[in-house]
Design goal:
Elements lengths: L2 H7 L2 E5 L4 H12 L3 E5 L13 H5 L4 E4 L8 H16 L4 E7 L6 H8 L4 E7 L10 H8 L2 E4 L5 E2 L4 H12 L8 E5 L5 E2 H12 L4 E4 L2 H10 L4 H14 L10 H6 L6 H10 L6
Parallel strand pairs: 1-2, 1-3, 3-4, 4-5, 5-8, 6-10
Antiparallel strand pairs: 7-9
Helix pairs in contact: 2-7, 4-5, 8-12, 9-10
The structure holds NADP nicotinamide-adenine-dinucleotide phosphate.
Length: 281
């Protein structure tokens, strides 16, 4: 056992979004690696919108995993991540790992907030999550009407399993200086269109499931109909228009480089989530 490993075994890591898709897996993986996890979401009294809750969450910790709710590229994210990162450093939380997004230019000011905080930072830029199909807004359409309506066109995306994101985050946190000051890009192993992804899910469930491509604008109108606030809809329509223009139709080899293994395959994700009854009507 190296000195690094010994000190990291006693590391306390604040996991924001600990009840969410990535945070819950980061917490599990960190505990399995022997780290002490301090879960942080509104359920534990930590609120990104209320700065008075930050110090109690951060004080005495060594590291923090930062996953900003909704989107890392929102103007609120840039402001709050920048402020929290500086406060973390003042409180002695030296190691920060930010979850960011591949190809999202509007996330760069948020990333800069972590880089300029004085922390030992790593930015993990992830592809679209496989779990967007099983935990989040996409699941209801598939479950209830058997149809995913989404502005993904025929663009190919290498969907990543959030368990791989968690494994990467914990590997980065426990690797000493190795990934400090770096952006790491991670994706799944295969490029799939949204239609192909839905076909794999259909195969795994035995249900007839379909994908209908719509324009970002049509998708936005549908979200307004579901009661999503207009400002958020405007942001999401612009964001999806950018992220789904083909810029991300490429693989990133961060999982292989950092974990020394292939990313989990989308077919395995689909089979396991189907077995758990995720898309049952
Ligand atoms: N989806 C993708 O494909 C994708 C790809 C790359 C990057 N990302 C990035 O992933 C991030 C989201 O991470 P995620 O998907 O793991 O999260 P998530 O599943 O959307 O969960 C959100 C988490 O944040 C907490 N939360 C919500 N509002 C909060 C508040 N005001 N204060 C404190 N905590 C709050 C929630 O818990 P409580 O309700 O208990 O507070 C929950 O734990 C975004 O920044 C997004 O840009 C997403």
């Amino acid at each position: 056992m190296t000195d690094n490993t010994q000190s990291e075994q006693g590391m306390t890591v604040v996991v924001t979004g600990a009840s969410g898709r990535t945070g819950s897996r980061v917490a599990q993986a960190a505990e399995a690696a022997g780290l002490t996890v301090r879960a942080a979401s509104r359920a534990q009294g930590f609120d990104w919108q209320d700065r008075s809750t930050w110090a109690a969450t951060l004080g005495g910790a060594d590291a923090a995993y930062l996953a900003y709710p909704t989107d890392v590229g929102s103007p609120d994210a840039a402001r709050d991540i920048g402020l929290l990162a500086r406060e973390a450093v003042e409180l002695g939380v030296r190691r920060l790992v930010l979850l960011s997004s591949r190809g999202e230019d509007r996330a760069r000011p948020t990333e800069d907030g972590v880089r300029e905080s004085g922390a030992d930072w790593t930015v993990v830029r992830a592809a679209w999550f496989a779990q967007n199909f099983s935990e989040g807004p996409m699941v209801e359409g598939l479950r209830q009407s058997g149809e995913l309506v989404f502005p993904g066109g025929e663009v190919r995306e290498p969907f990543i399993d959030v368990r791989d994101i968690a494994d990467v985050v914990v590997a980065v946190l426990t690797a000493g200086e190795r990934y400090v000051g770096q952006n790491v890009e991670i994706s799944g192993a295969r490029l799939l269109t949204f239609g192909e992804a839905v076909a794999e899910i259909a195969g795994a469930t035995g249900r007839e499931l379909t994908y209908r491509a719509v324009s970002p604008r049509e998708y936005g109108a549908q979200l307004v109909g579901f009661g999503v606030p207009a400002q958020e809809v405007g942001f999401l329509v612009e964001l999806f228009g950018e992220l789904l223009d083909g810029r991300n139709s490429r693989l990133s080899d961060g999982v292989q480089e950092i974990l020394g293994r292939e990313p989990r395959d989308f077919a395995d994700f689909a089979r396991e989530a189907a077995a758990a009854g995720t898309w049952k009507a």
